[in-house]
Amino acid sequence: MPATTDMRFRIGSVGIAYLNTVLLQLVDQGVVSLDDPVARWFPALRQADQVTLRMLGSTTSGYPDFESYPPFVKRLYEDPFQHWTQQELLDLALARPSWYEPGTNWSYSHANFVILGQILERVTRTPVKELLRQRVLNPLGLSATTSETSAVIPGPVLHSYTIERGFFEDATYWNPSWTTADGAILTSNICDLAVSARAVGTGRLISRAAFREMLDPGTVGLGGPTKDCPATLCVPQTAQHHFGLGVIVQNGWILQKPSFAGYSAVQSYLPSKDIAIAVATTRGRTTTEVNSAETVASQIGALLTGR
């Protein structure tokens, strides 16, 4: 079935940008500081007195990523429709030693966002789903973007396909409960994604000081393999390409590029040219890219900027 602009799909890590937007709103309000230790809310968590909110948002805590943990991968592919609880995910992540001392390296770890979501709930006494609705989705007018507590996608649905289990199959309703904080698992359409790209890329919902923190929380210069963290996970962060607080800064673009179960998307914004790009793709039988939307977005960006 041909895709249409009103079709909805999963937007994965875009929700991480929204989580960090809420965090920075709370910083603006003086409710929390980015350098508050996690121990303030989770005193029993490993290294809770050393890991800060900044480290969770920028994924520099050192907590391992359960996505690369063989027991998790085995269970996931045995039943990709199963629901994962937040506690199950943390137990899997913390079953291994930390990959490095907090704040000394960079690695993408979903565990950070699970913990961050729970802290935001404790700080505000409000579920993440409602926090995002009140503080991000409604203010931006993202009427087609919703937080789902199950694998449901409101219609009309853009179906996804994958070969992750060794054969080509419909993966539309694989359960995304492991991908981020409960309540930040979102579906959207391409029009909302374009609005989101510009809003996140301009820091529309936060102060200028908070926006500077979002783009440069101190990750530049970090990254590099350790005995516990391979180069594919502990990736060098440079001024040209680094992870901020829930966003990627890449050659002047501010973006997120979710990929899950055959879905790929990009929302990107170039401040110097005021260009917003939103792309969503699904995997075909011969697709080779991890995120084919990124390839398309790069080509569109090159055409619009002459680069």
From TrEMBL:
InterPro entries: AmpC-like (IPR050491), Beta-lactam-related (IPR001466), Beta-lactam/transpept-like (IPR012338). Residues 2-296 form the Beta-lactamase-related domain. It holds the Pfam family Beta-lactamase. Signal peptide: none annotated. This is CubicO group peptidase, beta-lactamase class C family.
